[in-house]
Amino acid sequence: MAEYAPITDEIRSRITRELGDECIVSNLDEAGTYAQDASELRYTPEMVIRVEETRQIRRLMRLANEYRFPVTPRGGGSGLAGGCLPVRGGVVLSLENMNRILSVHTEDLVAEVEPGTLTKVLRDAAQSKGLFFPPDPAGMDQSTIGGNAATNAGGPSCIKYGTTKDYVLGLEVVLPSGRLIKTGTRTRKGVVGYDLTQLFVGSEGTLGIITGLILKLIPFPEAVSGTSAVFNDLPTAMRAVTKILTRGHLPSAIEFLDAKCLSLVNDLLPFKVPGEKSTLLIIELDGAPEQIRHEIGVIGKICEDVGATHLLPAPDKEERERIWEMRRQVSLRIHDNSALYIPEDVAVPLGKIPALVAELPNFEAEYGLEIYAFGHAGDGNIHLNITAESRDNMTRVEKGVQAILARVIRMGGTISGEHGIGEAKKQYLSMELSAESIRLQTEIKNVFDPNMVLNPGKIFPE
Amino acid sequence: MALTDTTFRKLQDIVGNAYCSRKKEDLVCYAYDATAASYLPDAVLFPRNTQEISAIINLANKDAFSVIPRGSGSGMTGGSLAVRGGVILVMSRFNRILEIDKDNLIAHAEPGVVTARFHQAVEKEGLFYPPDPSSSEFSTLGGNLAECAGGPRAVKYGVTRDYVLGLEAVLPTGEIIQAGVRTAKGVVGYDLTRLLVGSEGTLGIITRITVRLLPLPEAIRAMTAVFTSLEKAAETVSEIIAQGIIPRTLEFMDNASIRCVESHLRMALPVEAGALLLIEVDGKFETVDILIKQLETVCMSQGAKDIKFAETKSEIANLWKARKAISPALFQYGPDKINEDIVVPRSRIPDMVRRIDALKEKTGLTMVSFGHAGDGNIHFNIMLDKKNQDDLKKAEAAIDSLFEYTLELGGTISGEHGVGITKAAYITKEIGPAELKLMKKIKKIFDPNGILNPGKIFPD
Ligand SMILES: Cc1cc2nc3c(=O)[nH]c(=O)nc-3n(C[C@H](O)[C@H](O)[C@H](O)COP(=O)(O)OP(=O)(O)OC[C@H]3O[C@@H](n4cnc5c(N)ncnc54)[C@H](O)[C@@H]3O)c2cc1C
Ligand SMILES: Cc1cc2nc3c(=O)[nH]c(=O)nc-3n(C[C@H](O)[C@H](O)[C@H](O)COP(=O)(O)OP(=O)(O)OC[C@H]3O[C@@H](n4cnc5c(N)ncnc54)[C@H](O)[C@@H]3O)c2cc1C
Predict the structure, then answer these.
(1) Which of B215, B240, B261 is the last residue of a domain?
(2) B71 assigned to some structural domain
(3) Chain A within 8 Å of B104 (Cβ-Cβ)?
(4) Per-residue CA distances from A301 to A253, A296, A308, B217 (Å)
(5) B276 vs chain A: nearest CA distance in angstroms?
(6) B233 and B291, same structural domain?
(7) Which residue from A37, A74, A330 has its CB within 8 A of the most atoms of ligand 1, so it is best to mutate?
(8) Across the interface, do A415 and B188 touch by the CB < 8 Å criterion?
(9) CA gyration radius, chain B
(10) Residue nearest to atom 16 of ligand 1 (CA)
(11) B196 Cα–ligand 1 center, Å
(12) Which domains does chain A have, with CATH numbers?
């Protein structure tokens, strides 16, 4: 394990002198918010810096190498894996003020943005020009594009449009050494040299600090329509999902909520939950208005044929928003109702979703857990919201989590579909990746960051 | 370094005598790709499984010879050539489609599967694998991954990278790794999958591939439209996109390509035209007809003439005939071809066209451009006789200028063919020293002894 220098007065004054004192966050209350993200973890930084310019970052990294203190990049702090927390101390580098949208080019369908741009702000700016930035992580009003790229964030639209990765064409990055590099292209295609862009995307702020992004946009879909369908159980709902997809439909979202989730929001549902295993599917389509009007009918019919007990068509925006609000409430209420909350984010092959969810009660009984499952039925990404009534028996809870993840891997799945490894899941990394793969990855890290000053302690267990 | 008899015998032991040769007549067959270059390897091997490849690699590290993976040898940049001698690993026996998982919309295949065969197999199941390099009748999936191949449909569907979920590879150290996932999503650790995709066989030998599939679009419609100038055609392309239509393909041919195909095939093409656009749309039955009408209106408003439509498979194939004939037809203009694969931002296509015209005028050489207008990817060809030193010099200078313009306009010098050997000398024009250094260090981690496909991508 690398040794780090504490942030001494000398270091503090060098940083202040070279970066300017406006960027130092000295208000302690405010600095406190930088000790947490959306996970349950908490690590207090020794110093918080909110930069305005790439130049400041380059200087900071040179100092970090000179004195050997850790620097942890932070976007909106909405991460669920503790990725932006200073687990080895040092400086938290907030990029939230580098938030300009530099251009939205309607002919090339490209946007150039600074990393601190909020996801929602970019989506709105694109839309105002008739363009679409599809990645739609549910935390989009707090998360930044830089954070999205660093975690390769996804959302409900992934099934049709893919994840953040698929929209990053090029990057400007400050390497841990302080050197500035540019990767990728402004064009949709380009195969010159190794794909460093895609290596940075998803690297959780451990290989470089993203200071600029060239993003791919597409035309904004003309219209959206939706429908929700209630089924007696999850296997039936998943049969509908498979049938929809194999009949050639490609919805822009297919989300599911299990019976436990539904029971939390009974007051918000326009129907009575019919049974103990009821499952709700939320389906959306986008495209040309004439086409989707017809197509949503066909999809509704498929749901009914397979056994849906209710259909809740949502052709209008207000109806769709009501449904999404209900889904948001599920997250919030799970969080509020439980003493201990561990958000797992596994993905399994679509066909395995019912089997996995069917096994959850066994895990609940054996390890004293309460598990709420919802997620992206269209791409197999299930948010297993694992809760417990108290924090007393953490070892048992952790054993339970581990048992579930092991099961997921045996099903051909992955332990993280979109949230990343960060600090929260690094102890499980070797369950999924082989020793060779981990060795290769740590060697890559070593090439980029020989002094281990950038976001140390993340992804790879030490 | 030449392969010793002892080493060759060890290789025979690994793959079996029947799948191992160093007879001249066999070596010659694997000395070429789609460039004009040729390098005789020391041996060709036809391994059958991952363990054999791993054993070959271990031996290569011990006995110090290079190993070059090869799909079908349709590469345009010399990637599969044994520039430093060594052993060619022909992946043709890795030719099984392992599973088409209809419910999960994914497929598992071996890298030697020919792209078109894979297309047919998934389409039979009502599914769709979009990447469609024009060479798909003979290129392999492994070669497609290694080059990150594109194709006409990239404008709507993206390139090979966008469909690869995971892979198995033998590293140059002999280790076998599984990268990526068998699910639609996954963010565990660094993205080794996308690092290997497009690495041109220099970081690992891909032995197994998992790709995601889409539902097969219900209907396809196609049209061609003729324009007085290439600039008009380019403006039309911008207008189509501005209207929010992303066609399935959006190809162009310039006047020289039209003339070239016409004199070759005599199919009554409009030889006076400045350019021809070939456009396809796909989707639901209800939408494709609406879209094609919209496209017709856009084209007409830009002064297009001679608009033709196609609905059935054979009608569509007919419209494509001219576009597909260009490559072979080119050689009537000269025995040698220098072909480039530049990309510029779509809005800069008219600029690029003007600059190419100026180059043509200045050099007097035969230059033919065609390609994927929808994503700004221009296949630019100079036809000449390389024995004519004067022309060769002019051509080389023209390529230098072409690359300069491309980069000036915010483009890239290779959209889909890769760097290989033919573009290695130019890579530093696009990639800066810090970036190049990182790439070389990555290569070094994967391949400390430099045994896998040496002499590619990086200039010496
Ligand atoms: C209510 C809620 C809903 C959510 N829903 C989703 C969802 O649907 N899908 C999903 O994928 N995630 C979701 N998340 C998780 C989170 O929003 C995403 O991981 C998001 O991408 C994090 O962005 P951020 O700007 O908040 O990054 P942070 O949390 O600040 O940082 C995340 C990681 O990125 C690194 N990082 C940040 N900026 C940079 C930069 N400029 N350069 C280099 N590294 C950087 C950090 O070091 C850290 O490792 C949700 C979170 C919440 C709270
Ligand atoms: C007429 C014609 C049209 C073409 N059109 C297009 C087009 O539209 N779009 C496009 O992108 N390309 C096109 N190409 C170029 C070429 O077909 C592609 O680059 C294709 O992907 C090469 O596949 P291959 O199997 O022939 O590979 P090869 O030429 O055999 O090898 C190419 C590279 O891949 C490596 N490689 C092969 N297999 C493996 C493996 N299993 N593991 C690791 N590395 C491997 C080789 O070492 C080499 O570096 C065209 C070529 C021709 C001749």
Answers:
(1) B215
(2) yes
(3) yes
(4) 17, 9, 9, 20
(5) 21
(6) yes
(7) A74
(8) yes
(9) 23
(10) A79
(11) 26
(12) 9-96 (3.30.43.10), 101-219 (3.30.465.10), 223-332 (3.30.70.3450)
Q: Are residues B99 and B206 in the same domain?
A: yes
Q: Is A139 in the pocket of ligand 1 (CB under 6 A)?
A: yes
Domain check: are B100 and B70 in the same one?
no
Separation in Å, CA B438 to CA A43, A182, A453, B356:
32, 12, 17, 34
Report the amino acid identity of residue A355.
A
Are residues B176 and B122 part of one domain? yes
Residue A121 three-state SS = helix
Q: Is A380 on the interface with B (CB under 8 A)?
A: yes
Query: What number does the ligand 2 atom closest to the CA of B328 have?
Result: 1
Chain B residues in contact with A165 by the CB 8 A cut-off are 191, 194
How many domains are contained in chain B?
Answer: 4
Task: Answer whether A212 contacts ligand 1 (Cβ < 6 A).
Answer: no
Q: Left, alpha or beta for A373 (phi > 0: left; psi -120 to 50: alpha)? A: beta
pLDDT in tens, chain A (462 residues): 789 999 999 999 999 999 999 999 988 788 889 999 999 899 999 999 999 999 999 999 999 999 999 999 999 999 999 999 999 999 999 999 999 999 999 999 999 999 999 999 999 999 999 999 999 999 999 999 999 999 999 999 999 999 999 999 999 999 999 999 999 999 999 999 999 999 999 999 999 999 999 999 999 999 999 999 999 999 999 999 989 988 889 999 999 999 999 999 988 888 777 778 899 999 999 998 988 999 999 999 999 999 999 999 999 999 999 999 999 899 889 988 888 999 999 999 888 888 999 999 999 999 999 999 999 998 899 999 999 988 888 899 999 999 999 999 999 999 999 999 999 999 999 999 999 999 999 999 999 999 999 999 999 998
Task: Name the residue of chain A whose CA is nearest to B435's CA.
Answer: A181
**Quick one: which H or E segment has residue A91?**
strand A91-94
The answer to whether position B456 is within a domain reads no
Q: For the whole model, what pTM was predicted?
A: 0.96
- Residue for token digits 């009660």? A361
Of B28, B63, B92, the domain-final residue = B92
Q: What is the CATH number of the domain that holds B410?
A: 3.30.70.2740
Query: Is residue B452 within 8 Å of B146, Cβ to Cβ?
Result: no
Report the interhelical angle of A234-246 vs A289-306 (nearest 10°): 140
Q: Which residues of A touch B246 (CB under 8 A)?
A: 218-219
Interface pTM, i.e. ipTM: 0.94
Taking an 8 Å cut-off on Cβ atoms, the answer to whether A194 and B147 are in contact is no
**Same structural domain for residues B320 and B224?**
yes
Any CB–CB contact under 8 A between B317 and chain A?
no
pLDDT of B112: 98
Please give the residue range of the domain that contains residue B357.
Answer: 334-448
Task: Look up residue B267 and give its two tokens.
Answer: 């199919």
Cβ contacts of A198 on chain B, cutoff 8 Å: 161, 191, 194-195
- Whole-number pLDDT of residue A10: 98
Predicted confidence (pLDDT) per residue in B25-38, tens digit:
999 999 999 998 99
The CATH number of the domain holding residue B55 is: 3.30.43.10
Q: Which of B343, B375, B441 sits opposite A447 (nearest CB)?
A: B441
Q: Is B152 on the interface with A (CB under 8 A)?
A: no
Q: Looking at the domain assignment, is residue B457 inside a domain?
A: no
| B442 touching A (Cβ < 8 Å) | yes
Distance CA A275, CA A336 (A): 25
As a dihedral over the C-alpha atoms of residue A119, residue A121, residue A126, residue A132, rounded to 10 degrees, the angle is 40
Other Cβ atoms less than 10 A from the Cβ of A461: the count is 12
Residue B460 lies in a domain: no
H or E segment at A180? strand A180-184
Distance (Å) from CA B15 to ligand 1 centroid: 48
Closest C-alpha residue for ligand 2 atom 37 = B143
Q: Are residues B64 and B142 located together in one domain of the fold?
A: no
What type of residue sits at position A126?
Answer: A
Whether B35 and B77 map to the same domain: the answer is yes
User: Is residue B102 located within the same domain as residue B155?
Assistant: yes
pLDDT at B1 over 70: no
Which pLDDT does position B46 carry in this prediction? Answer: 98
- Give, using CA atoms, the residue closest to atom 3 of ligand 1: A139
